[in-house]
Design a protein that fits this description.
Blueprint lengths: L9 H12 L5 H8 L6 H10 L1 H18 L3 H12 L7 E12 L6 E11 L7 H4 L2 E6 L5 E5 L2 H11 L36
Antiparallel strand pairs: 1-2, 3-4
Amino acid sequence: MRFMDRDLTKLQKNFVDEYLKDRNTNATECVRRAGYRTKYPDKVAYQLLENPRVLKLIEKERSARAKRTNIDKDRVLQEIAKLGFSDITDYLEVTTERILVDRDPETDEPISEVRQLVLLKDTNQIPKDKLAAIAEIKQAKDGSISFKLHDKKGSLELLGRHLSMFTDNLNHQGQVNVQFNIPRPPKGPVILEEDEAD
């Protein structure tokens, strides 16, 4: 039997919409925003996320959005990698040059000194995939230029976490007493304004 969106109730569809809007929001909050009137939104959220029809719609909408926007996990990782593996020498060059600063008044001999110069490359000389790492280029009234790349360290941390390279080790010695005070839900099924969670 083929799954159809119409197999879900309006509140279930609202929940899916809310769930997809902000993935960082917990499902309990999505239940509230979807319009459910219940004293136990956490239990309703659990039931919704266990419902195969709801899960199927979430996956269907995610796939449709990825196709529509051409944004998928691989593309996001590639963009993060551009930031993480950026190299300042792709954008500017430090050169050492001898510069004429004056002339000797008696001998008319040139007086020069060695200086290091920072030369910013023209953007048409920088490969397009490297341009994504540039966060900001500003030119002040005095002609000085400031140049900033996106956060390399943060991007590498994201990639490292994706690859499970970093683990937080927590060592504890001794006894730990933990007490949880969890209110018990009423016996039997949760009664909604409409029975929407099924």
